[in-house]
Design a protein that fits this description.
By secondary structure, the chain is an alpha+beta fold. It is 39% helix and 23% strand. The chain has three domains: 116 residues, Rossmann fold, CATH 3.40.50; 111 residues, D-amino Acid Aminotransferase, Chain A, domain 1; 71 residues, 2-Layer Sandwich (Dna Ligase, domain 1). It contains 14 helices and 13 strands.
Length: 351
């Protein structure tokens, strides 16, 4: 049987570069496990922090060592060159987290290459990345959300007469406590929980330094639960998991520091709530035109039995300890089987 050459695309120009390497390493291990070595051949392709593509021994070395390649600023000529191995790829497995990786940009390039790839296309990726567009899509299909409002950088960095009025409007719509978030960053970068006008002003200014679009959400006292989705036109939902953490909120440090967060799979929830979350996860997946995989995050307010959708992540963390593969493992799909299914779904979508 002829093996499919899987282009394992990792690294990338985002703050989640190191996380991407860890995810790629786990996927490579899965592709070398169970029946997968008889079906697939791995071609690692690494995008440096400066945007230069590397393949062959260099990419394999980064994958093995798990540390980024030091780099200088790239020339325009370097950015337009791809390693020759790129032409040998039968199907891409992009595992580039954050901007330039899960926002539709790399998906557009892979589409132009006319090669199948794992995950959502340009539309699903870009809508899933932009928290404002995502919320609009969720609202369109009737998914319940906490109160929120959106502003842009020009409003925040306007003259001193306008900014106080903007803060007045935010306080009236969402109140305190609230969360200020850049619309297009992952891993909780630039997010702040605020409880006063002075904290709001500082958080808005900080968020605007990361992104020109900012969303502000009402803070709720709730359990944070997540559900994984797998499929294309007929997606399936996994068991539901819960995250608890030793922090004020689930920030970057809580996500990536050992011992700061705990995953509880399956979550101890009423059956009716579990079913509701699974149905909402599939509806959210369809709302953004998702494909292949996604992790959908929710708030469960225990006192009122309400479930609010928080966000969808179309390219979630994929280490062996990440929530997405663990949710599927608890549902009966092992890590090697999951990777295999995702590649097959990519091929199916391309037909």
């Amino acid at each position: 049987m002829t093996k499919l050459r899987v282009g394992l695309l990792f690294g990338g120009r985002s703050g989640e570069h190191e996380v991407s390497i860890k995810s790629a390493k786990a996927i490579a291990t899965a592709l070398n496990t169970a029946d997968n070595p008889q079906k697939y051949e791995i071609l690692p392709v690494y995008i440096q922090k400066n945007g230069v593509w590397q393949a062959g021994n260099t990419a394999q070395q980064i994958l093995d060592q798990g540390t980024p390649l030091p780099c200088e600023e790239a020339t325009a000529q370097q950015l337009w060159q791809f390693p020759p191995q790129v032409s040998e790829v039968d199907v891409w497995f992009p595992i580039l987290h954050g901007p330039n990786g899960e926002d539709g940009t790399i998906q557009g390039l892979l589409t132009l290459m006319q090669t199948p790839f794992v995950g959502s296309g340009v539309l699903g990726s870009s809508v899933g990345m932009d928290k404002i567009a995502m919320k609009m899509a969720f609202a369109q299909v009737g998914l319940p959300q906490v109160e929120y409002t959106a502003v842009d950088r020009a409003e925040i960095w306007s003259n001193p007469c306008v900014f106080p009025k903007l803060c007045d409007e935010i306080e009236e719509i969402v109140g305190y406590p609230c969360f200020v978030k850049p619309a297009n960053l992952g891993s909780s970068v630039g997010i702040a929980k605020v409880r006063s006008r002075s904290e709001l002003e500082a958080a808005l200014d900080n968020a605007a330094s990361y992104d020109r679009r900012i969303v502000i959400e009402t803070g709720v006292t709730a359990r944070e639960v997540e559900c994984a989705v797998l499929g294309n036109d007929n997606p399936k939902a996994s068991v539901v998991g819960e995250i608890t953490y030793n922090a004020d909120f689930y920030d970057y440090e809580a996500k990536y520091t050992d011992g700061k967060a705990q995953l509880h799979i399956p979550a101890q929830l009423p059956e009716t709530i579990i079913t509701q979350i699974q149905e909402m996860a599939i509806l959210a997946f369809a709302a953004v035109d998702g494909a292949g995989l996604a992790r959908v995050d929710f708030f469960y307010v225990e006192d009122s039995q309400e479930v609010f959708i928080n966000e969808i992540n179309t390219l979630p963390g994929f280490t062996a300890f990440s929530m997405y593969p663990q949710l599927w493992n608890a549902t009966g799909v092992t890590f090697p089987e999951l990777v295999d299914q995702l590649i097959q779904l990519a091929l199916e979508r391309n037909n």
